[in-house]
Specification:
about 500 residues; acid-amino acid ligase activity; 2 domains; alpha/beta
Length: about 500
């Protein structure tokens, strides 16, 4: 009998039982008041009159009326740049201990997002919430004695003066509690290796020494790591190396597009649990097995607001117009897409994270990620969100029994007329031509999206598809940003960026 595992499982069961149900709308009101109270003496708090907002009869309304929306560039240019110059008490008390470096999914320019000690505490508390939710998944006691492979960015953080810099997954892993370190793999020494390929090589070499019960990381890089381990040991599935693997905690992007290719690496199904950890904070996690939706963390250092995701509110660079309406948690509707705004214990205020979400169960505060504002393809009125693209690609996978875990698309002018040009990533041998895939994809989108169908009868003249090996997508990420960690493939590219991508593809395939 797994005695230690039984003890841990019982503790988790008791913790989950006594936690009880929260009221998300009330929790959010309390979080906002705490944020405003703590930041009222900062430069930001004084400028926007947090003291007066707190005196209002309706604090949420007063806050939304007084403080404007900010994307990263606006927040950095108007406020956070002063932190880089050595000032303190700018948008949150004191100075941040860490900066999360994020290139996001667009361009090479890195963002430096403040990570306060308060945020690290909030991330740890959210992690505990996720662990206690494992009580809902009916896992055997011995699972809680297995090791966990956390595949994030390097924990070898760069020290810059009085703070450290790195990706949020590296910052989080470098701050794991002492009692967890015995379970954590690949271990501190390997996790500090900066070069992704070198780190994965060491993981593959050591894989048989570990008894991995759970995986955690972004699907695209997790798949690549698992393939390397399988190839290195010349086996058929990852279960031939880690027979006790039972759980995969996904994060950063929707898992659904990777499901088919990921499952091909397994001998038998495992439990997939979605999480939503961004550079700006731990936003949500899946807490029950009946759904893949995630519960928004409404009582732990982040205040959320929601802008209806309508084309008229979204600008070409993915930002939202100043006159876009906003609703608080109390007024959201299920099944409707919203642009997510966050105010946090790291001093981000009404901050546009760039993601769109939809509520699947408001009472439980459960959401799903539906896309990115910058990945909204509407050049000729097609109104394609990433969610609609992912659904179409999944239908294409099922129709032709192929795996297409990555893609990118752009609206490109060919002979003066717009076409959607898709690059699809797969290592499968196909029994259908690229022209056949293009027609099938076009038909799927016409049937699923009336706006797309109208666009195809007017300004959108055609659809083209090119199939690429998966290695091209990995190398593009490596050449433009950095392999592994939080890096995600951009699903929609502007025409100029797409030209660069096609030139890169040509070079890779030559």
């Amino acid at each position: 009998m797994a005695i230690v595992g039984s003890i841990i499982k019982n503790i988790i069961n008791v913790t989950d039982t006594i936690t009880g149900e929260n009221n998300p709308a009330e929790d959010q009101q309390k979080v906002l008041i705490k944020l405003l109270e703590k930041a009222k003496e900062t430069a930001f708090g004084k400028y926007y009159g947090f003291e007066k907002i707190l005196e209002s009869d309706d604090v949420e309304k007063a806050f939304s009326e007084k403080v404007p929306y900010f994307d990263y560039h606006q927040m950095n240019e108007k406020w956070w740049h002063r932190l880089h110059e050595g000032e303190e008490d700018i948008s949150w008390p004191g100075a941040p201990s860490y900066y999360a470096i994020s290139s996001g999914t667009t361009g090479k320019t890195s963002k430096k997002i403040p990570v306060s000690e308060d945020m690290l505490d909030a991330i740890k508390k959210s992690g505990i919430k996720q662990v206690t939710a494992l009580a809902n998944f009916d896992l055997p006691s011995d699972f809680f004695e297995k090791e966990i492979m956390m595949l994030g960015s390097s924990t070898n953080l760069a020290q810059k003066g009085d703070h450290y810099e790195g990706e949020i997954s590296g910052i989080s892993a470098s701050n794991i509690p002492f009692w967890f370190r015995g379970y954590y793999k690949p271990g501190e020494e390997i996790a500090k290796i900066d070069d992704w390929d070198e780190r994965v090589k060491h993981i593959a070499e050591n894989a048989k020494n570990w008894d991995i019960g759970a995986l955690s990381g972004i699907p695209s890089w997790m798949e690549l790591m698992l393939k390397e381990v399988i190839d290195y040991h010349k086996v058929e599935t990852i279960h031939d190396i880690w027979p006790n693997l039972q759980v995969y905690t996904s994060g950063g992007v929707a898992f659904k597009p990777y499901e088919k290719s990921f499952n091909a690496l397994l001998k038998h199904p495992i439990i997939v649990i979605d999480t939503y950890l961004a550079s700006e904070g731990f936003i949500a996690c899946q807490i029950r097995p009946e759904t893949s939706a995630m519960q928004l963390i409404t009582d732990n250092g982040i205040y959320f607001e929601f802008v209806p995701f309508e084309p008229s509110y979204i600008q070409q660079d993915g930002s939202i117009s100043e006159d876009a309406p906003v609703v608080s948690f109390a007024d959201v509707e299920e099944g409707k897409d919203y642009v997510l705004l966050m105010s946090t214990v790291s001093g981000a205020w009404r901050y546009l994270i760039g993601d769109t979400i939809a509520f699947t169960d408001k009472k439980r505060a459960e959401i799903k990620i539906t896309g990115r504002t910058k990945f909204f393809l509407n050049v000729v009125g097609s109104q394609l969100s990433v969610n609609k693209m992912n659904d179409a690609i999944q239908e294409l996978e099922n129709k032709f029994d192929i795996k297409l875990p990555e893609f990118t698309v752009s609206a490109v002018k060919i002979d003066g007329e717009f076409h959607h040009v898709w690059h699809l990533g797969t290592d499968d041998k196909l029994d259908i031509s690229e022209e056949g895939l293009a027609k099938a994809l076009d038909d799927i989108l016409k049937n699923a999206n009336k706006n797309y169908k109208v666009a195809r009868s007017k300004a959108l003249k055609g659809v083209k598809v090119k199939v690429l090996p998966m290695e091209v997508f990995y190398e593009w990420s490596g050449a433009n940003k950095k392999k592994g960690g939080q890096v995600k493939m951009e699903k929609v590219m502007g025409e100029e960026k797409f030209k660069d991508f096609e030139a890169f593809v040509k070079k890779q395939l030559s």
